[in-house]
Amino acid sequence: MRRFFIGILVLALGANPLLAQQIAPFKENDRVVFLGNSITDGGHYHAYVWLYYMTRFPTMNLTILNAGIGGDRVGDMLKRLDGDVFSKQPTVLFTTFGMNDSGYFEYNGSEPEKFADEKVKESHNGYKQMEERYKGLVGTRIVLLGSSPYDEDVVIPDNTSLKNKNKAMLRIVDFQRASATANKWEFLDFNEPMTAISKRVQQEDPSFTLSGNDRVHPDLDGHMVMAYLLLKAQGFSGQKVAEMEIDASNQKIINASNCNLSDIVKTGTGWSFDYHANALPYPLDTVARGWGSKKSQFDALAVVPFMEEMNQELLIVKGLKGNYKLLIDGEEIGKWSAAEFAKGINLAALDNTPQYQQALRIMHLNEERWEIERRFRDYAWVQYNFFQPKGLLDANNRRAIEVFDQFKEKDGWLRAKRDLYSKAMFPEVRQAWQHEMDVLLQTIKHVSIPKTRKISLVRN
């Protein structure tokens, strides 16, 4: 079943030649900012993209920053461009909106088409102001992202679908695409490919969706699909972690891509050689982390060919006879036949290799960084959604606390952030959080440097 859906998806995505490289890859010293709503604010897709760069380009200096705020529409984003987005000094600015802009419950009301027209027009008018601001930016590359979809088709108990909401979202995607074309900006749509994946799997499993339990917020598998689509648009499909090919019978290196091989030695029981890759395998989290998550990042592999296209660390050994154990740095990794070694073993699919374990450290450090960055996003929500309309943006004084407490009992979202704001209002606390993230990033930079590994094949 899993291979069936992946096969169809490969054909669907492969049919679009623009996916070869729609979006330029990030370069040295880029500061990449993702502006969006709650899907960006509480989402992982940008963190998963950064994890790819951390492991694939370990010496690259790159910063990726979250500028999402839950509930935002394009008009809300417009109001915080200077203080929350441009202030981050982006060299690349991704912008996505549409889920909140298109509205919600009125789609099941008496005049859904009129409502959709009004919401799309409102969003377009707000975006035209944003577009003008973007045109004035110097040294910033603009990338517009069509929103992940609202899933109208998934069967969710006690959750009635909003009919034709996603059609309104696609109209927003259309004017984003047109703007990108007119301004010679870059563009990528998440909506149609994610909808296509969900529809295909729903033929066999009507409860499947990439859009989460509420039809709106992708679960972690959905965010990994988004990361995959973005990385594919950057042209990384087909780029391997490394590839090593050896003719054991002649002790000869046939190929060493993105790695160095040396000291091939024939022993009494097999062969050994030194392997130093320029990258690490991409680690995939098997835990459904975070509030409300039911699926893990790893679950995305059931519906997209990420491993086949972007996570290949191939070991090919020809000229063997019989079965062999594979050891890396003295640790047994597994046993394969000569035919399997000749075909190739994808080491990136094995979580017990030393290099995969090294990459796991980076994954967990990056997750800790993401958790701390989320505190800053909750603080931004309080500042821009609550204080800014009241003329108290960045006041962070006794008056701000008093106003906060006047409203918190009537607003559950506000009440949930009371403890965080009582800390974040002090600059020293925010500086300490930033320092924690800086230390994590320094540690990631240190941990991500690949090491020379001793690979041994021992006749079984």
Automatic annotation (TrEMBL):
Identify a single GO molecular function assigned to this protein: phosphatidylcholine lysophospholipase activity
Question: Which ranges carry the SGNH hydrolase-type esterase domain?
Answer: 34-223
Its domain of life reads Bacteria
Q: Which UniProt keywords apply?
A: Signal
Signal recorded as keyword? yes
**What span is annotated as the signal peptide, if there is one?**
1-20
For the keyword Cell wall biogenesis/degradation, the answer is no
InterPro entries with a match to the protein in the record? Ester_Hydrolysis_Enzymes, SGNH_hydro, SGNH_hydro_sf
Name listed for the protein in its UniProt record: SGNH hydrolase-type esterase domain-containing protein
Organism the protein comes from? Sphingobacterium haloxyli
